[in-house]
Structure formats: structure tokens, C-alpha cells
Amino acid sequence: MTRRKKTYFPRVAGDPSPVEITVESRVRFSDTDAMAIVWHGRYPRFFEMAAEALAGHIGLTYKAYYENNLRAPIVQMHVDYHRPLPLEAKIRIKAALIWSKAARLNTEYTIYQENGIIAATGYTVQMFTDAASGEPYILPPPLLETILGKWQSGGFGKL
Fold first, then answer.
1. Which residues contact 85 (CB under 8 A, 6 or more apart)?
2. Which residue, among 21, 19, 9, 37, has the nearest Cα to 113 in the 3D structure?
3. Are 151 and 11 in contact (CB under 8 A)?
4. Which fold has domain 19-152?
5. DSSP 3-state assignment of 14?
6. Domain ranges in the chain?
7. What is the pTM of this model?
8. Which DSSP symbol is given to 101?
9. What are 52-102's pLDDT values in tens digits?
């Protein structure tokens, strides 16, 4: 049996630690398939729940995107399914933003069952673009530069 990766993005010595947040939820009927387990296509919604909480904490709210003429579409997403999640299960979803100096957001996710067993892991990559033209940023836009500066000075941590 192949061992699964513990992390998806490399950690570089000297870079700030990941910014992490954990949210809780419950598996709803609309999340499940005919076998009463979470349908594979619902995991991105779980990721988004944690990602939205994390982004709000560091100042990357949807309002901030609009005010700064930015978008950050997901350009990559990956999910590894470890254990099924049954209907009504209580879950914890951890999102960890991994340091990058590029104009992108690298976020890793872990979904835990109530007993602490890992049900799924995955990641997303978001690239910053200009809202009007759709052109990608090569260097971090000013909003992200501000957030990176705060992060580098220790302004964020585990939540």
C-alpha cells in the first residue's frame, strides 16, 4: 500500500509557518449519495467552508477582492479520499495556507471524522488576476503584499 503525502506543498526553512483554521460541520442529507455517504463531489464545498473562514481571518474577504479589483480563481484542486463520511457525521475541516511569495494561494485541507480519523485531504491553488481584464498577476498584488508582510512579521498563526 502506498503511503499518502502528509503535505502537498513544500515547506522551505525560514518561511513563515502555515496559517491554519479549523471549522466544524455536520454531513447533511443533501451531501450524501444513495449509499448515505458523502458524494465525492461535495468535498470541495467542505474545503470552501474552511477556506472562506481562513481568508476572512487574514483579510482576503470577497469585499476586499472587489475593492482591490482582484479575483483569485482556483486553477488546481485535488482530493484524496481516505475514509467515507456517513450521513449526520460531525466533521472538522482544517485549512492551512502555505507560504508563497508568488501571486497565488496554496491551501491544504484535512477533513477529520468526529473520532479524529482523517476522512479526506486535498489542496487548492488560486492565482490572482485583474478583475477587469482577467490577466494574471506575476507578482503579488498590493493587497496580497500587505497580507504577506503581516504574515511574515508573525501577525497570523493557528486559529
1. 27, 31, 37, 38, 91, 111, 113, 119, 120
2. 37
3. no
4. Thiol Ester Dehydrase; Chain A (3.10.129)
5. coil
6. 19-152
7. 0.93
8. S
9. 999 999 999 999 999 999 999 999 999 999 999 999 999 999 999 999 999
